[in-house]
# Entry
Amino acid sequence: MPIGTLSPLPSISPIKPLKPLKPLKPLKSSSAPQGAASPGPVANGAAGGVVAVGGDEFVVAWSPTRRVVNYRREDGSILEKSRGSRSWRNNNPGNIIAGSFAEANGSIGSDGVMAIFPSRKIGRKAIETLLRGPSYRNLTIRDAIFRYAPPHENDSAGYVNYVAQETGIHENTMLSALLIGDLRKIVAAIEKMEGWEEGTLRDTRASQPPSGAIVSAAQVAQEWMKIAEREAALPEDNRTEWPDSAPLGRRENPRILEYLNSCDFYASDAADSDEINWCAGFINYCLENAGFVGTEHPGARSVFWNRMHQFIRLGQPAYGAIAVLRDAPFDDANWDNGTGHVGFIVDSDSDGLFLLGGNQSNTVKISYYKLPIKDGYGNTTRRLEAIMMPRMN
# Structure
């Protein structure tokens, strides 16, 4: 190892039919949302940011469970590597430990200990850079291996013998004396010694639902959208937060508490309050009353987590899909904490989305969201993290 039961809907007069479906425009910045399902920790300072590898642009990688590594592309799709060797899963032929050196040489995450590189090529290049660096170049092959794979963790002598036999280069040869071709023989031997064994690949880009499936889902979206529009048609006082300064008994809107009751709300917050962020409560209420599976969680990020696999991830806006907006900071790619917003997409233009949702200016209504939102310094403060379509039952 190198060092380095929900209440029934209210009785409301029928509303006018929903408008016919129409194609929605892609956002100007991309045809795909920013972000992806269940992303992992971002490696700070990764060299080069987005790394282009064979047409793929991996921006972050992480290990959600043992023997699984996920690579997220800029378009939000995920390449999953499972089984196989640790070095193969991490694109890290030398099993280089995560840290500043790995980050400076292109790593885009870690599995908790080892660095994860966007490609095997970049992982190999990191070994080469390490051996040509000041900590190694003036060492013999033997001394370099004993530093790279120290005896308290490895059979260092056996490691040296293997590299010498594999390359045909004597163990007392100085690394600084090696031509690049011979150095790369050393790198290849290290890769073999560290145990490169391929496993299983699964690419969400290949499993994206066909357009027909999206159209069918959008047609079914009429079911939860009828409920959403019915709620939006309620008198304003019935669908809006009530101020805490109001007389006792008029401080919490029971309709909003009903939305929250579709989540595991009371288990997570003892206070019956309509001031809690309730946009996800509204989404869950509409889905569950239409007979679909919600997230059972009051947080906007719960739609993004997609833990019950109840949503299809889309690459472009679609009527009735759920837009997941995320607020800065964005460094926790698991999104375990932090704020955001969710709403049903009803239309889009090149700059943003029209969402029908709850907790939009403290009420249920259609609002326009320009995306992304940047502050005066050009930093993104809110972005579109995902577009999720509930699966048909």
Q: What stands out?
A: Confidence is low (pLDDT under 50) at residues 3-23, 29-55, 265-275. The radius of gyration is 26 Å. DSSP finds twelve helices and 14 strands in the chain. The first helix runs from residue 86 to 89.
